[in-house]
């Protein structure tokens, strides 16, 4: 049996509370820190589970107030996670190949100077962590989120948000491929520089090359 990811365990623990009626619509659930302590897991895993549940409109995150149960679970509350299990990493990467090069081009054209600087900042943080031998998954995800938001296209942003947890799995898996880490860092720096240079065609080409390179490595 495939071992569950930590955030899936958290997801199911929260789901169980809602399904059992312990947490009802309108109820405020414990904080990330409290759930982390109660379940004995890292805060990042709790945040990821909450993010997926909020995308499914089961939880509602209100900045500065907390997280609330938005609605009862349907008949298939784990449908999105089941889909995640069945989807191949190659399919996820091909989905990225369709969407992300255009996002990179759009943010190069329409992103604000502040947004462009943030994208470059996270690319450099990735490089810094890689050189130290540290995990840079958070910075990788943040880099791509900033590109999606800075592209100023609500439809594409909504598409990325809907499949956000699937793209998360794609990036996490790619980091397990040893040859990918160094190349990914290099590509991110180049993509960020092309975006900051306001060069949409170069940003598009580099993002496409980055994902094609990943697809090539996945076949071996």
What's the structural blueprint in terms of helices and strands?
Layout: H1 6-19, H2 32-39, H3 43-55, E1 59-62, E2 66-69, H4 79-86, H5 89-110, H6 113-131, H7 137-150, H8 154-162, H9 164-174, H10 178-196, H11 200-218
Helix pairs in contact: 1-3, 2-3, 5-7, 5-9, 5-10, 5-11, 6-7, 6-10, 10-11
In short:
The chain has 11 helices and 2 strands, in the order αααββαααααααα. The chain is mainly alpha-helical and 220 residues long. The model is unreliable at 83-87 (pLDDT under 50).
How would you portray this structure in words?
InterPro entries: GntR_C (IPR011711), TF_FadR/GntR_C (IPR008920), Tscrpt_reg_HTH_GntR (IPR000524), WH-like_DNA-bd_sf (IPR036388), WH_DNA-bd_sf (IPR036390). With 220 residues, this protein is mainly alpha-helical. The chain has 2 domains: 6-80, Winged helix-like DNA-binding domain superfamily/Winged helix DNA-binding domain (Arc Repressor Mutant, subunit A); 87-218, Four Helix Bundle (Hemerythrin (Met), subunit A), CATH 1.20.120. 71% of the residues lie in helices and 4% in strands. It contains 11 helices and 2 strands. A two-stranded antiparallel sheet has the order 1-2. A hairpin with a 3-residue loop joins strand 1 (59-62) and strand 2 (66-69). The protein is globular and about 50 Å long. Residues 83-87 have low confidence and may be disordered.
